[in-house]
Amino acid sequence: MFWILNFVFSFLASLFFCVIFDAPRKLYLSCGFVGACGWMVYILFFDGLQVHTIYSSFFGSLALGLLSHYMARHMKEPVIITGIIPLVPGGLAYDATKNLVLLHFSRAINTMLEVTLIAGAIALGLLFADQISKIVISGFDRTRKKL
User: Fold this and answer.
1) Which of 114, 77, 123 is closest to 95 using CA atoms?
2) How far apart, in whole angstroms, are the C-alpha atoms of residue 58 and residue 35?
3) Phi, psi dihedral angles at 133 (to 5 degrees)
Protein backbone atom coordinates (compact mmCIF):
# COMPACT_ATOMS: atom_id res chain seq x y z
CA MET A 1 0.00 0.00 0.00
CA PHE A 2 2.92 2.32 0.83
CA TRP A 3 4.36 1.97 -2.68
CA ILE A 4 1.02 2.55 -4.39
CA LEU A 5 0.32 5.73 -2.41
CA ASN A 6 3.80 7.07 -3.14
CA PHE A 7 3.34 6.38 -6.83
CA VAL A 8 -0.12 7.97 -6.99
CA PHE A 9 0.74 11.13 -5.06
CA SER A 10 4.03 11.73 -6.87
CA PHE A 11 2.20 11.15 -10.17
CA LEU A 12 -0.40 13.75 -9.21
CA ALA A 13 2.20 16.26 -7.99
CA SER A 14 4.13 15.97 -11.25
CA LEU A 15 0.96 16.12 -13.35
CA PHE A 16 -0.36 19.23 -11.60
CA PHE A 17 2.99 20.96 -11.91
CA CYS A 18 2.88 20.15 -15.62
CA VAL A 19 -0.51 21.88 -15.74
CA ILE A 20 0.91 24.92 -13.91
CA PHE A 21 3.79 25.12 -16.41
CA ASP A 22 1.23 25.11 -19.22
CA ALA A 23 2.74 22.11 -20.99
CA PRO A 24 0.89 20.60 -23.95
CA ARG A 25 -2.02 18.41 -22.87
CA LYS A 26 -0.69 15.35 -24.61
CA LEU A 27 2.30 15.41 -22.23
CA TYR A 28 0.32 15.39 -18.98
CA LEU A 29 0.29 11.63 -18.46
CA SER A 30 3.88 11.11 -19.55
CA CYS A 31 5.12 13.93 -17.27
CA GLY A 32 3.17 12.47 -14.35
CA PHE A 33 4.50 8.99 -15.06
CA VAL A 34 8.10 10.15 -15.36
CA GLY A 35 7.83 12.12 -12.11
CA ALA A 36 6.33 9.14 -10.31
CA CYS A 37 9.09 6.87 -11.60
CA GLY A 38 11.78 9.29 -10.42
CA TRP A 39 10.20 9.44 -6.98
CA MET A 40 9.88 5.65 -6.83
CA VAL A 41 13.60 5.29 -7.58
CA TYR A 42 14.28 7.75 -4.75
CA ILE A 43 12.04 5.76 -2.38
CA LEU A 44 13.63 2.48 -3.47
CA PHE A 45 17.11 3.76 -2.61
CA PHE A 46 16.09 5.66 0.54
CA ASP A 47 13.66 3.23 2.18
CA GLY A 48 14.49 -0.03 0.45
CA LEU A 49 18.28 0.06 0.30
CA GLN A 50 18.78 2.47 3.25
CA VAL A 51 20.96 4.85 1.21
CA HIS A 52 21.39 8.46 2.43
CA THR A 53 18.95 11.00 1.05
CA ILE A 54 21.68 12.82 -0.90
CA TYR A 55 22.57 9.73 -2.92
CA SER A 56 18.93 8.74 -3.23
CA SER A 57 18.14 12.17 -4.68
CA PHE A 58 20.97 11.75 -7.16
CA PHE A 59 19.72 8.39 -8.41
CA GLY A 60 16.11 9.58 -8.46
CA SER A 61 16.98 12.62 -10.56
CA LEU A 62 19.21 10.51 -12.81
CA ALA A 63 16.33 8.12 -13.52
CA LEU A 64 13.97 11.07 -13.94
CA GLY A 65 16.29 12.76 -16.42
CA LEU A 66 16.85 9.60 -18.46
CA LEU A 67 13.12 8.89 -18.61
CA SER A 68 12.40 12.51 -19.55
CA HIS A 69 14.84 12.37 -22.43
CA TYR A 70 13.41 9.06 -23.59
CA MET A 71 9.84 10.36 -23.45
CA ALA A 72 10.84 13.54 -25.27
CA ARG A 73 12.29 11.48 -28.13
CA HIS A 74 9.31 9.13 -28.11
CA MET A 75 6.67 11.89 -28.07
CA LYS A 76 8.70 14.20 -30.37
CA GLU A 77 8.49 17.10 -27.91
CA PRO A 78 11.10 19.10 -25.99
CA VAL A 79 12.33 17.72 -22.68
CA ILE A 80 10.06 18.81 -19.82
CA ILE A 81 11.27 17.89 -16.35
CA THR A 82 8.30 18.76 -14.16
CA GLY A 83 8.71 15.49 -12.28
CA ILE A 84 11.57 16.98 -10.29
CA ILE A 85 9.09 18.62 -7.90
CA PRO A 86 8.69 15.63 -5.54
CA LEU A 87 12.48 15.47 -5.11
CA VAL A 88 13.01 19.12 -4.18
CA PRO A 89 13.87 19.46 -0.46
CA GLY A 90 11.43 22.30 0.30
CA GLY A 91 10.47 21.12 3.77
CA LEU A 92 14.08 20.79 4.79
CA ALA A 93 14.82 24.30 3.49
CA TYR A 94 11.89 25.58 5.54
CA ASP A 95 13.30 23.91 8.66
CA ALA A 96 16.69 25.50 8.02
CA THR A 97 15.14 28.94 7.64
CA LYS A 98 13.01 28.45 10.75
CA ASN A 99 16.08 27.45 12.79
CA LEU A 100 17.93 30.48 11.47
CA VAL A 101 15.10 32.81 12.52
CA LEU A 102 14.92 31.15 15.95
CA LEU A 103 18.69 31.72 16.33
CA HIS A 104 19.51 28.00 16.43
CA PHE A 105 22.55 28.51 14.23
CA SER A 106 24.16 25.09 14.56
CA ARG A 107 20.98 23.28 13.50
CA ALA A 108 20.37 25.84 10.73
CA ILE A 109 23.87 25.43 9.29
CA ASN A 110 23.68 21.63 9.32
CA THR A 111 20.24 21.60 7.73
CA MET A 112 21.17 24.20 5.11
CA LEU A 113 24.28 22.21 4.21
CA GLU A 114 22.14 19.11 3.72
CA VAL A 115 19.68 21.10 1.56
CA THR A 116 22.57 22.39 -0.55
CA LEU A 117 24.01 18.90 -0.99
CA ILE A 118 20.62 17.46 -1.96
CA ALA A 119 20.04 20.26 -4.48
CA GLY A 120 23.52 19.68 -5.90
CA ALA A 121 22.86 15.94 -6.15
CA ILE A 122 19.61 16.61 -8.03
CA ALA A 123 21.39 18.96 -10.43
CA LEU A 124 24.23 16.47 -10.91
CA GLY A 125 21.78 13.65 -11.62
CA LEU A 126 20.03 15.74 -14.28
CA LEU A 127 23.38 16.74 -15.77
CA PHE A 128 24.53 13.12 -15.97
CA ALA A 129 21.22 12.10 -17.53
CA ASP A 130 21.57 14.81 -20.15
CA GLN A 131 25.12 13.75 -21.00
CA ILE A 132 24.23 10.04 -21.08
CA SER A 133 21.31 10.70 -23.41
CA LYS A 134 23.53 12.78 -25.71
CA ILE A 135 26.11 9.99 -25.82
CA VAL A 136 23.45 7.38 -26.58
CA ILE A 137 21.78 9.53 -29.25
CA SER A 138 25.10 10.33 -30.94
CA GLY A 139 25.97 6.61 -30.84
CA PHE A 140 22.69 5.77 -32.57
CA ASP A 141 23.32 8.46 -35.17
CA ARG A 142 26.80 7.03 -35.91
CA THR A 143 25.45 3.50 -36.36
CA ARG A 144 22.70 4.77 -38.69
CA LYS A 145 25.27 6.56 -40.87
CA LYS A 146 27.36 3.39 -41.16
CA LEU A 147 24.36 1.40 -42.38
Assistant:
1) 114
2) 14
3) -65, -35
* 28-45 per-position pLDDT tens digit: 888 888 889 999 999 999
**Type of residue numbered 111:** T
Contacts of 56 (CB under 8 A, 6+ apart): 42, 43, 45, 46
Tell me the average pLDDT across 22-30.
84
Whether the per-residue pLDDT at 139 is higher than 80: the answer is no
User: What is the rounded CA–CA span in Å between residue 129 and residue 115?
Assistant: 21
Higher pLDDT, 120 or 3: 120
What does the alpha-carbon distance between residue 43 and residue 118 come to, in Å, rounded to a whole number?
Answer: 15
More confident residue, 22 or 44: 44
pTM of the predicted structure, to 2 decimals = 0.81
- Angstrom CA distances, 18 to 24, 39, 88, 96, 130, stand at 9, 16, 15, 28, 20
| Residue of 85, 71, 79, 72 lying closest to 39 (CA atoms) | 85
Q: Provide the residue type at 142 as one letter.
A: R
Angle, helix 28-43 to helix 53-75, in steps of 10 degrees? 150
